[in-house]
Amino acid sequence: MREDFKRRVQEVEYRLTATNSFISYGHQSISEEDIEAVACVLKSPFLTTGPVAAEFESALCHLTGAKHAIVCSNGTTALHLACLGLGISENDLGITSPITFLASANCVEFCGGRTDFVDIDPASLCLSPEKLEDYCKNVAVPKVVIPVDFAGIPADLPTIHSLSKKYGFHIIEDAAHSIGSSYEWNGSQISCGACVHSDLAIFSFHPVKTITSGEGGAVLTNDDKLAERIRMMRSHGIERRIDLLTKNDGPWYHEMADLSYNCRITDFQCALGKSQLKRLQSFKARRREIVDHYNTAFGKFNELTLPPDPKGSSVCYHLYSLQFNDGSQKRYEVFQELWKVRIYCQIHYIPIYWQPYYNRKYGYPIGKCPNAEAYYAHCLSLPLYPALSDDEVGYIIESVINLIR
Ligand SMILES: Cc1ncc(COP(=O)(O)O)c(C=O)c1O
Q1: CA-based max dimension of the chain
Q2: Boundary-marking domain end, from 276, 309, 331
Q3: How far is ligand 1, taken at its centre, from the CA of residue 249, in Å?
Q4: Could you give the CA distance from residue 84 to residue 77 in angstroms, rounded to a whole number?
Q5: How far apart (Å, rounded) are the C-alpha atoms in residues 98 and 174?
Q6: Which atom of ligand 1 is nearest to the CA of 100?
Q7: Atom 14 of ligand 1, residue of closest alpha carbon
Q8: Between 2 and 374, the higher pLDDT residue
Q9: Mean local confidence (pLDDT), 278-290
């Protein structure tokens, strides 16, 4: 049995070398049905945002329970639109986690606001509600807080929501990683993106995410007025209200109510997203299966800390982030060695306030968020996507274990 496993793992290595290929940390899974759905739109008269975008939006509402979904060109524009919807403007303060992709922070800056960072809770790897409350009490009350469901793990939205009532700030849930995840609240499961504990939420459909539309994103909300404004801001700030059509020059009439951008997504991208959404539950199950394989293998080593698996939550893992307790040097060696054997692991993320833009503009000091910095020093994301075969997972596990022994 063990011999057979060894042989199959070796075959993975031979194949990667012979074909000069590699296993990346994330990869899309495209089916024939997906291709047909895209081709069908390409043969139709409508290419840009049209009827299939509306169907994709309905499917996202059905999935999450949110009342409105507005699809757009990517997750970054979704965050920007969410901030524009809330009216974030010059000198408004936004707070996010330092352990996230740059866009979670940049969206406030795009609107002329100022982004600051509150440390993570090392148990969840998401924004710490305790640290957020300290910030509200001792530094300032922000206009918006952007909690990130890091790696698919739901941030503690119910607690952050109660803080928003106490101190008076808006919430945008950055659910770019967490489509398909849910958390427990009052005995029910609440989907990430449902906006039960936020004003708005966003998804990203980049190819490494759980479902993809090539590039794409969505803003979700239960607020009719916010939804209307964001829909308008998606396309140049143009309003096409029925009362404008009847009262003015003619049916061509429209008004540019505010200055905005072209944030639209095409209908063929939405066809891919909608088709992928049908397989979300099987993607989630396969991701969980791989996470379980990794956890069983790595759980035996004191040198390693496994990713969080919070009680009561149902996590659709986007990333598998392992921590090397022996420190950044060990993590660095493992990263280098895995790349040599064609396993293209990644690091998620460098604390954002270390980036030259933020450092130059605000002079945020090293040591500002100790938990985030400690996490960054030890973390490494292993490949995680549904198309990974069991033999490839075995190859990754053997390769990591060989390096820590
Ligand atoms: C947490 C998070 N938020 C936002 C984004 C932005 O999404 P997109 O790449 O679709 O613009 C990403 C993308 O990687 C992300 O990881």
Answers
A1: 80
A2: 276
A3: 42
A4: 10
A5: 13
A6: 1
A7: 101
A8: 374
A9: 98
Q: 210 and 312 share a domain?
A: no
Q: How far is the CA of 273 from the centre of ligand 1 (A)?
A: 16
Atom 16 of ligand 1, nearest CA residue: 101
Which ligand 1 atom is the nearest neighbour of the CA of 217?
Answer: 10
User: What's 123's domain CATH number?
Assistant: 3.40.640.10
Span from the CA of 103 to the centroid of ligand 1 (angstroms): 6
Mean predicted confidence (pLDDT) in 341-360: 97
Same domain as 77, residue 8: no
Do the beta carbons of residue 361 and residue 325 sit within 8 Å? no
pLDDT, tens digit, 9 for 90 and up, residues 109-145: 999 999 999 999 999 999 999 999 999 999 999 999 9
Query: By residue range, what is the domain housing residue 235?
Result: 32-276
**Count of domains in the chain?**
2
For residues 23 and 36, membership in a common domain is answered with no
- List residues near ligand 1 (CB under 6 A): 74-76, 100-101, 103-104, 148, 174, 176-177, 204, 206, 217
The ligand 1 atom nearest the CA atom of 149: 1
Q: What tens digit of pLDDT does each residue of 299-333 get?
A: 999 999 999 999 999 999 999 999 999 888 889 99
Are 266 and 333 in a shared domain?
no
